[in-house]
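Hello forum,

I keep getting stuck at the same step: I have a sequence, I want structure tokens, and every attempt I make locally crashes halfway through. Rather than fight my setup again tonight, could one of you with a working pipeline run this one for me? It's a single chain of 83 residues.
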Amino acid sequence: MCGFIAPTTQPFCEGCRRLRLTSEGRLHGCLARDSEHDLTPLLLESGSTHARSRIDEVLAAAFAQKRGERFTRGVSSMASVGG
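Reply #2:
Ran it on my machine without issues. Output:
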């Protein structure tokens, strides 16, 4: 399946429920913000209960950063994380 992102003509931020994980282990909750969460240390310890709990907390924090604001960053920022 293929889709096209048209943030100017068809704003999508309000309904976005996506998280993006880079190949370097960085989680982006929103492409319109510079915030990211480094999951690498937690993924390396994913067998421990503490690490799994922390991963849940990081995912919740990433979703909480989604405020429904309109995407305002440039296309190059989206390409850098595969968006």
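The chain has one domain: 13-76. If your local run keeps crashing, start a new thread with the error log.
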